[in-house]
């Protein structure tokens, strides 16, 4: 029987915009509602986690979990530049206090993709001014709530803009060849759709944010090298402000990391991907307390680059290869370059078959346990996601949650996978056969 130590954190994660609902001051709310929107549907009430957080956290507790990762929404805290909303701070204070009442460790993310609308109008994530703005926001939140927050992830998936740029470049190549592969399915983008809507969409973008549409830089926009630098400078500024205000808070950042595997001749591609996804960022992380690792699948590289899935590849609903062992492999790779604590801040699967999720959790956490036995300092695991939620451009069709939600009534339906995850704390792991 494989058991985690009592202090190991096991739980689930959410992101504010995806679950809270009515995040009306955010850039994503704006982009969801403009003419020609690239979003399948608007977020609207989402799953009303803003009002139902106690019910949702209680379900997590009842299952046996002891950790909840969630984000504080910048667009709620600072809906207008320089004006902080005390009512919203009190809301998140209540969320944090409820976690502590239930002996749940909160892991707070300061920025999980969505930004205030005004920030984008000011230049967004390609502007130097964002560094100061983000620092001010993090300072304010820490001054108000820092005594309730043991762990802070400054930015979620700091490398995502780079990954999106790669995906779009590949999509353009695919379009030229009039072929398709699973990568496009994964992110829910369609080049034909995009081309048809582009002119209307970009005109509406510019009008909505009051700037040239070429200067609309949301966090998920493909990044220039300067944009990459700005994100990491935002992280450094946030860490400085948080630590100055409350040095006891453990500060880190999260990265989206694939398990890159090489076939003969593919080694150079793996090295390049690992450098661009993670190693390039290491100089900015030296003063961090922990690292957030997020993994969903693997990529196999041959002598000509990424090897496409075939008809025999087991896929998730998102089009990723079903490969829970990717997580352990990524942790081993990271540990070669990082000797401080690691938290698995996201790992999961979109599927309508919950037995697949149970199997995925068991196999993924078996890999985590093996890494710990090998001496890798993994201190926690938060599954994505606590709730079926709003998956950005894909809307509500994808089902990553441990809890299903009937959005017509907002009724919660915990899945077997939730109790399975929670029981691991007491029961330990029993490897499910593939």
Explain the layout of strands and helices:
Elements: E1 9-13, H1 16-19, H2 27-33, H3 49-63, E2 67-71, H4 74-77, H5 86-101, E3 105-111, H6 117-121, H7 129-145, E4 151-155, H8 160-176, H9 182-187, H10 191-209, H11 225-245, E5 250-252, E6 254-256, E7 259-262, H12 267-277, E8 291-294, E9 298-302, E10 305-306, H13 326-335, E11 342-346, H14 354-373, E12 378-384, E13 403-406, E14 411-414, H15 416-427
Parallel strand pairs: 1-2, 1-12, 2-3, 3-4, 4-5, 6-8, 7-9, 8-11, 11-12
Antiparallel strand pairs: 9-10, 13-14
Helix pairs in contact: 3-15, 7-11, 13-14, 14-15
Please characterize this protein's 3D structure.
- The protein is α/β, with parallel strands linked by helices.
- The protein has one domain: TIM Barrel.
- Helices cover 42% and strands 15% of the residues.
- The strands form three sheets. It has a nine-stranded parallel beta sheet. A three-stranded mixed beta sheet has the order 7-9-10.
- Helix 14 links the parallel strand 11 and strand 12.
- Helix 3 packs across helix 15, helix 7 runs parallel beside helix 11 and helix 13 packs parallel to helix 14.
- It is globular.
- The two termini are 18 Å apart.
- Belongs to the glycosyl hydrolase 1 family.
